[in-house]
Structures
1.
Amino acid sequence: AQSVTQLDSQVPVFEEAPVELRCNYSSSVSVYLFWYVQYPNQGLQLLLKYLSGSTLVKGINGFEAEFNKSQTSFHLRKPSVHISDTAEYFCAVSPRRGGGGSNYKLTFGKGTLLTVNP
Amino acid sequence: EPEVTQTPSHQVTQMGQEVILRCVPISNHLYFYWYRQILGQKVEFLVSFYNNEISEKSEIFDDQFSVERPDGSNFTLKIRSTKLEDSAMYFCASSGGVLNEKLLFGSGTQLSVL
């Protein structure tokens, strides 16, 4: 089984400031890692994912995340945030599967509400 | 980018009634999922569906729930006799048959059981 902990339920920042949203996970098997964003009244949009390879992953909207296997972390960062980045951010993991398909079973964290103030 | 489409966006029903939530996944995807998010709680996995059968389900997905892919495009979640605790946002998602493809979510159906 997997579990995901997002350490901060709310993160307020000022526009153009850097931000880091923290995510730690536990799993008895190897996992894929994801960050999703949910804007008000919308669905879950994939920001980025780590499947294999380079531990630094770049996503959409200037976000990036680094997989740290020893610390079982996958923190999300952005060097300079905009008002439009205000949203809820979800970290998720899925166990690695055999076979050739993309068969995911996501376990989500509780989410971090990022509020960007002018 | 192609989208997963869910209808309706809001559904209100009386306790004990049957509801069907509908989803149109990405056309060339092969894996289909339902997740739900009760207000204030985590997004939770309900079920995955592949090759016209359930491939995995959570303990939440009991006999009151069923899924179906009635034709080549739709994927439905049926709740036979709704309970108050079924009130949640239900998300449909799909992913492709090729390794490393994205898991894409729809905008959700907000189900309110009264």
2.
Amino acid sequence: SQQGEEDPQALSIQEGENATMNCSYKTSINNLQWYRQNSGRGLVHLILIRSNEREKHSGRLRVTLDTSKKSSSLLITASRAADTASYFCATDQGNTPLVFGKGTRLSVIA
Amino acid sequence: DAMVIQNPRYQVTQFGKPVTLSCSQTLNHNVMYWYQQKSSQAPKLLFHYYDKDFNNEADTPDNFQSRRPNTSFCFLDIRSPGLGDAAMYLCATSRDIAQSYEQYFGPGTRLTVT
């Protein structure tokens, strides 16, 4: 069953701008993960944030988690054309497989 | 490099003709997953193996079956493909299900049904 809902569904920005994608979910979670998928390829894990964490950084990525609002955001700073991809959040509810959201399609225009 | 490999990358089959997709991993992970992904949609989990234990999602059609003969290999069998089964099929692995382990994905097999 679908747990995460990403927002917006599609986002188009200029190279160098920041991109923000949001994910909302419905039930309590152990952690939330973000994945990237380039067109026609498999998903690649980007970052994991645990339910007791509020913010996490990895390079140009910044992820926040607000468990009271059941939402997370992924910020990509100083975007590049190579960041063009679909981004999915996935929630870990315990001893069950990850549940993926519908994804945000990001286009970074050079 | 440790990885998840899927063969073939592109598969064309005829309506109703059985087809098998394969996945192998060098990560020695306990869990292997099969996802179906249609255009601009989220990956949809079909089933997963925890070691030899098979776990089928409730809404996975009976047309889809899987085999895991050993730790490294897992197969997806589509017994009678329909036009609606045309999709990207993704294999993934993880060390475990619990304890917040990430999933490692293969490049996918794009299935076309004619």
3.
Amino acid sequence: DARVTQTPRHKVTEMGQEVTMRCQPILGHNTVFWYRQTMMQGLELLAYFRNRAPLDDSGMPKDRFSAEMPDATLATLKIQPSEPRDSAVYFCASGPGASGAYNEQFFGPGTRLTVL
Amino acid sequence: GNSVTQMEGPVTLSEEAFLTINCTYTATGYPSLFWYVQYPGEGLQLLLKATKADDKGSNKGFEATYRKETTSFHLEKGSVQVSDSAVYFCALSTYTGNQFYFGTGTSLTVIP
């Protein structure tokens, strides 16, 4: 049963520290998405990739956030330095990037980040 | 542009009641439409989808019909259960599948 995996599942850190979240997309999927979910803002798209190339990262605060895909099996989201307002659940999702019946996104379980 | 508007929550229903969660969309081109469900502490998971006008998606007793004339994709279930308590997200995707647009989510609580 293919799934998107994310690590860590939970992270507590102090303000100013660097945080790296990792995602393994489903094998064969060529689109990868990073979302942030908070009670106040709901689900926000931060960035997405197609064939490892960033297509849109306009939802990300550029000064502290960065997203990369070092290879097809790994996507990373980094925050440096972290701030308390970054506390949220971060989801990774992957998809086949296809149209019609094959169009779908599969979500990972999320990383719950708390910045003190 | 592309966007999704869904019914504000929270919604509280008694077990076996009828459920409707409204969703309307604006889109350029011919989008696919989706309902995702998020159970507490979990990621979103696909509930059902429809890829063209008049298609009906269905799963676990839930249904939604892609109505192009009213740009709607309302979620319905005839008899809800306590286990249906979750947050429901309506979404659309562009033809290429490159990007998804999610609604704000509707929280449903079903009481025994």
